[in-house]
């Protein structure tokens, strides 16, 4: 546990920022932090969130950079998303004021379709890249008991992108509740897309579900 | 996403298109809903000119599809990535003076100092701005434009505008765009033939560079969004707010990264 953490922290630092001989001291400091965390100091929640983003990000990056077709990568990413991202919560938020207007069947269909569409979006965006690297920065409180963890994603030949992960702790363990890319919230953008579509289609939720079915069928 | 704003910045079809829109009666206001929840959505979107904006969105997209997009795709296909990065850096360096003045007007002297260092270092060691040497020295680029300056003075953003040629905007950003042109030294140099050519060349390359930078992003919006107009509006608004917030919260240190205290 301690070894893994110190390894992550080393990677998070700018290249060349820490001379090698100082790494021992750094590992010691991390060990101390972990010791404090075991003692139940407030440091625990923060470091747990950063560690969570490290682990989740490492697994995602391993799949993206790994071999296999887009379809195979999709298969590998799906369990990662289901385990680490609160997709149901994001779906409910994305439907906005229409959630309470929808029947229980429509709500259930919407959530199922949202899982498909989100996975398609993620795989279509990430699957095109090879040689992705990411580094994790600090965490800050986000309000509502949420924490925000900053990361930077580097892709070859592209400007680096700042991505912030908003984590909630509803079930005890941290889960991703929103993602901000360059200051833009994924869930809010989705919500405003759906709201506009619905208001231009007579507030008919079935039409939204049909459109999402077409999206899900298109690239799965 | 800043590039999105610049993206269709100069298609120069504005005057005839506005005239055509008025003739066709495309100008108009969205109807205010009566349902309280729908009204809350309407107010938060703040897009009372939506029908007109959507008309220009369609026009811009059509023009883009047959002109700028193929040119940008050709540029990406023919010119290798390192050269494109160099061109992008050089263009950013040409824009540094306007960034510097906006930093000052935003009362961010430390940001202004960084912009000045970037301009001096990149213009010399960076061979006319082609290489971003200053970034490696601990002076990364930041955003500053006329719209952000107006925001720092308390001027509200105002309703959403999708302008022909300019793309996503607002009264605040469009006014700021005019200020940036006024702040660019190139605007004031005497108009010799050589300089005129340079100005037009920069202008043309700038448009292609900006469009090439958002090829993937715009394709994704058009592919993944149910309502690309609303999604672009949401992205633009949020990104603008984030840029302004980053500027407000930036009280950076006077010492660069490499200086160990």
TrEMBL record, chain A:
Alphabetized, the UniProt keywords read: Signal
- Which positions make up the signal peptide? 1-39
List the Gene3D superfamilies. Tgt2/MlaC
- Tell me the InterPro entries matching this sequence: MlaC/ttg2D (IPR008869), Tgt2/MlaC_sf (IPR042245)
* Superkingdom of source: Bacteria
Taxonomic classification, please? Bacteria, Pseudomonadati, Pseudomonadota, Alphaproteobacteria, Acetobacterales
UniProt xrefs under Pfam families = MlaC
Q: What is this protein called?
A: ABC transporter substrate-binding protein
UniProtKB/TrEMBL annotation, chain B:
* InterPro entries linked: MlaA (IPR007428)
Q: Which GO terms describe its cellular component?
A: membrane
Q: Which PROSITE patterns match?
A: PROKAR_LIPOPROTEIN (PS51257)
According to its UniProt entry, the protein's GO biological process terms are: intermembrane phospholipid transfer
Give start-end of the signal peptide.
1-19
Q: Which Pfam families match?
A: MlaA
Keyword hit for tRNA processing: no
Q: Which UniProt keywords apply?
A: Lipoprotein, Signal
Tell me the protein family, please.
Belongs to the MlaA family.
Q: What is this protein called?
A: VacJ family lipoprotein
């Amino acid at each position: 546990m301690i070894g893994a953490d110190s390894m992550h922290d080393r990677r998070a630092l700018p290249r060349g920022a820490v001379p090698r001989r100082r790494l021992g001291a750094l590992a010691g400091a991390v060990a101390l932090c972990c010791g404090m965390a075991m003692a139940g100091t407030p440091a625990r929640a923060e470091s747990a969130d950063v560690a969570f983003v490290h682990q989740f990000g490492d697994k995602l990056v391993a799949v993206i950079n790994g071999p296999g077709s887009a379809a195979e990568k999709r298969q590998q990413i799906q369990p990662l998303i289901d385990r680490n991202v609160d997709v149901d919560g994001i779906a409910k938020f994305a439907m906005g004021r229409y959630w309470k207007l929808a029947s229980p069947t429509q709500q259930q269909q919407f959530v199922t379709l949202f899982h498909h569409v989100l996975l398609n979006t993620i795989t279509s965006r990430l699957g095109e890249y090879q040689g992705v690297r990411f580094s994790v920065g600090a965490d800050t409180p986000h309000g509502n008991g949420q924490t925000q963890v900053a990361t930077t994603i580097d892709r070859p030949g592209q400007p680096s992108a700042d991505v912030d992960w908003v984590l909630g702790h509803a079930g005890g363990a941290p889960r991703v509740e929103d993602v901000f890319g360059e200051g833009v919230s994924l869930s809010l953008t989705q919500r405003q897309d759906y709201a506009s579509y619905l208001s231009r289609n007579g507030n008919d939720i079935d039409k939204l579900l049909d459109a999402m079915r077409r999206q899900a069928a298109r690239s799965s | 996403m800043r590039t999105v704003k610049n993206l269709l910045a100069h298609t120069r079809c504005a005057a005839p298109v506005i005239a055509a829109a008025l003739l066709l009666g495309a100008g108009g206001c969205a109807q205010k809903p009566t349902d309280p929840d729908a009204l809350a959505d309407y107010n938060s979107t703040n897009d009372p000119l939506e029908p007109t904006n959507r008309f220009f969105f369609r026009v811009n997209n059509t023009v883009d599809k047959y002109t700028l997009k193929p040119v940008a795709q050709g540029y990406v296909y023919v010119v290798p990535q390192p050269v494109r990065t160099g061109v992008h850096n050089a263009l950013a360096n040409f824009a540094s003076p306007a960034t510097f003045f906006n930093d000052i007007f935003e009362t961010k002297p430390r940001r202004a100092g960084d912009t000045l260092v970037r301009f001096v270092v990149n213009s010399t060691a960076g061979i006319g701005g082609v290489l971003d040497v200053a970034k490696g020295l601990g002076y990364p680029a930041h955003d500053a434009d006329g719209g952000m300056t107006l925001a720092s003075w308390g001027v509200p953003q105002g309703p959403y505008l999708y302008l022909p040629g300019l793309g996503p905007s607002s009264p605040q950003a469009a006014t700021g765009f005019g200020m940036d042109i006024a702040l660019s030294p190139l605007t004031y140099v005497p108009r010799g033939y050589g300089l005129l050519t340079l100005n037009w060349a920069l202008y043309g390359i700038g448009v292609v560079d900006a469009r090439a930078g958002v090829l993937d992003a715009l394709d994704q919006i058009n592919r993944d969004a149910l309502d690309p107009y609303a999604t672009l509006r949401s992205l633009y608004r949020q990104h603008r707010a984030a840029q302004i917030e980053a500027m407000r919260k930036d009280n950076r240190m006077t010492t660069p990264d490499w200086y160990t205290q």
